[in-house]
Design a protein that fits this description.
The complex is a heterodimer of chains A (276) and B (292). Chain A is of the alpha/beta class and 276 residues long. Chain A is built from 12 helices and 10 strands. Chain B is of the alpha/beta class and 292 residues long. Chain B has one domain: Rossmann fold. Classes of the chains: A alpha/beta (276), B alpha/beta (292). The structure holds adenosine-5'-triphosphate (ATP) (2 copies) and magnesium ion (2 copies).
């Protein structure tokens, strides 16, 4: 597996990243010496303990704030603390809650146009065509451009959020719990769309979630975090059938499941404990 | 079932808008027995959270909301209570874990101030120091590693899952008779989630608390709930004991939901069957048959 990854071009790299938040009376070490490399076109899942620094990592990948120590590279070049527009354009975020991330007073078309305006993409006429193309890309009819978010279902809103992230043609999407607010039918639809877009547009995903069943079915590799430390990183199959770390095993053993086959898998993983 | 803690009969809700009345609930009936754990699952936007807010008496305070039907809590008709009496129920005999943890906490007060307010609803004479001690022990119960730090913090300084646990701890603090948990595990890792479910079960056993559990996570529902109601576009389309519902779902919508759950054994993201596609279109208002 290591050989396979080495052959692939790392599009995004984090080298020895740490982040400490300082408050009046104490410090919080949110991330501690994280090394991570994401290959072009892959879907890397980030899972782990709540409060282990996953969102902090996402914020730093997006350049919202810099790491306390360590460096990040995009396409082999060092990312500066202050990013220019093209660099910001390369990495886009899709958030958990589609309702609060879309402005309720703007039509869908206006929200998408704003993303194009910010990055100064195309002429006026071209932007119009581009909005229609973006909606089409996420499987929504052009008429939706004139609708307000309130007239869309949860899944449709999340598709608009994805279209907005795609507006400026990023290389990388950071997805922070993109489907946890959706029912499983809508979730399946959105996940299939994400999967298809990744292959069609050669996108790279950093997919943060607590839903391990989703991870199993969408990710190529999985990084497991506990208390600011990356405790394991392996291909998805290994994580789910033969995890090497005790914390990973406890996670797999605690996944709520609905079928007997899943129950059997959980049991095997927990029993392997003695073998390690 | 003898004397339920909560019963809703033919609950209807609409919102008055510029374009007229938008109907959201089309007559929901459900009952929760004492010490019973009941799940409400279904489509995003189908009316789960609004149902919860009506039970708490929160939507009644919204001018645009048009509500009808009967709601009985612990034998009392909720509509007959005054606003003050309803307020007195909230946070004491009824409490709720709200769906969006980070925006449901007050951004301008540190966590300990909000915690103290909750605890004082039950005990007017609680001192600052006693409140702190109680809060620390409640946060430890929900697996918060540094409760002192979390109590001093503001919501924005905490992770999504920490805020969710703070809210769970607050909702459990006064050991209510009815706990409404609206998507209580969305921001939690599976081991912490299991711990919070354990706490809720424990409360059910010790205090006879009843739980209304709203969730998209069918695995958790299967492990936690005694009975399940399935809601689709403001109507209950199916309900029954958890085992029966999972092994023999009757309604096409319930079947479609079950088929769409991704499995940890792999097999790819479920492909939505052609006949389930229709359930995804918000513009189609299905005539749903409710099995007897
Ligand atoms: N702005 C901030 N100020 C102070 N501390 C912070 C800030 N942001 C995050 N932290 C702390 O950093 C740690 C990691 O938080 P982060 O949000 O990255 O966790 P997470 O892995 O995303 O958790 P979850 O799964 O619950 O969303 C937590 O202890 C949190 O309290
Ligand atoms: N204050 C309001 N004014 C107008 N419409 C509202 C209001 N609150 C909720 N609604 C509408 O009522 C419907 C039901 O919303 P509700 O929040 O109960 O859905 P839900 O079942 O909890 O969905 P989810 O699973 O996404 O949380 C939605 O269509 C929503 O847009
Ligand atoms: Mg997070
Ligand atoms: Mg809801």
């Amino acid at each position: 597996m290591i050989e396979k990854t080495a052959e692939l071009v790392p599009v995004l790299e984090a080298r020895n990243i740490s982040k400490t938040f300082k408050a009046a009376t104490h410090e919080v070490r949110a991330l501690d010496g994280v090394n991570l490399s994401v290959a072009r076109g892959e879907c890397l899942a980030i899972v782990g303990e709540s409060g282990s620094g996953k969102t902090t990592l996402a914020n730093m990948l997006l350049g919202i704030y810099p790491p306390t120590t360590g460096e990040m590279l995009l396409d082999g070049a060092l990312l500066p603390a202050r990013r220019n527009l093209p660099l910001r354009r390369a990495i886009q975020l899709v958030q958990q809650n589609p309702l609060s991330s879309l402005n309720p007073r703007r039509t869908i078309g206006a929200s998408l146009r704003l993303a194009l305006d910010v990055h100064d993409i195309g002429t006026r006429q071209e932007r119009k065509t581009r909005i229609a193309a973006l909606l089409d890309e996420v499987g929504l009819p052009t008429e939706f451009a004139s609708r307000y978010p309130s007239a869309l279902s949860g899944g449709q809103r999340q598709r608009v959020a994805i279209a907005r992230a795609l507006a400026c043609e990023p290389e990388i999407l950071v997805l922070d719990e993109p489907t946890s607010a959706l029912d499983v039918l809508v979730q399946a639809r959105v996940l299939r769309l994400l999967d298809e877009l990744r292959h069609r547009k050669a996108l790279t995903y950093v997919f943060i979630t607590h839903d391990l069943a989703v991870v199993r079915n969408i990710a190529d590799r999985v990084a497991v975090f506990e208390r600011g430390i990356m405790v394991e990183m392996a291909d998805t199959e290994t994580i789910f059938t033969n995890p090497g770390n005790a914390y990973t095993r406890s996670l797999i053993g605690a996944i709520p499941i609905i079928t007997d086959e899943e129950e059997a898998l959980r049991k095997t993983v927990l029993e392997n404990k003695s073998a390690h | 079932m003898s004397d339920p803690i909560l019963s809703l009969r033919d609950l209807k809700l609409g919102f008055k808008t510029y374009e007229g009345l938008v109907e959201v609930l089309h007559g929901i009936s459900l009952r929760i027995g004492r010490g019973e754990k009941v799940a409400l699952v279904g489509e995003s936007g189908s009316g789960k959270s609004v149902t919860a807010r009506i039970i708490l008496g929160l939507l009644q305070e919204l001018k645009a909301a048009r509500i009808s039907g009967a709601i009985h809590f612990d034998g009392a008709d909720l509509e007959k209570l005054s606003r003050r009496e309803r307020q007195a129920l909230r946070g004491t005999r009824m409490s709720m874990i709200f769906q969006d943890p980070t925006s449901s906490l007050n951004p301008v007060f540190p966590i300990h101030v909000q915690f103290h307010e909750v605890l004082r609803r039950m005990d007017r004479n609680l001192t600052q120091k006693q409140g702190m001690q109680r809060a620390i022990s409640l946060l430890t119960d929900v697996s918060i590693p540094e409760p002192e730090r979390v109590l001093q913090a503001y919501a924005f300084q905490l992770s999504g899952g920490m805020n969710q646990r703070v809210m769970i701890a607050m909702a459990l603090a006064n050991e209510p008779s009815l706990l409404i948990a609206d998507e209580p595990g969305t921001a939690l890792d599976v081991t912490v989630q299991a711990q919070t479910l354990h706490l809720m079960r424990d409360l059910v056993v010790r205090k006879g608390t009843s739980v209304l559990f709203i969730s998209h996570n069918l695995g958790v529902v299967r492990e936690f709930a005694d009975r399940v109601y399935v809601i689709y576009k403001g109507r209950i389309v199916e309900h029954g004991p958890t085992d029966t519902l999972f092994s023999k779902p009757l309604h096409p919508y319930t079947k479609a939901l079950m088929a769409a759950v991704p499995r940890i054994t792999g097999g790819g993201i479920p492909d939505i069957a052609e006949n389930s596609e229709a359930f995804l279109d918000p513009m189609i208002d299905h005539e749903v048959e409710v099995p007897a």
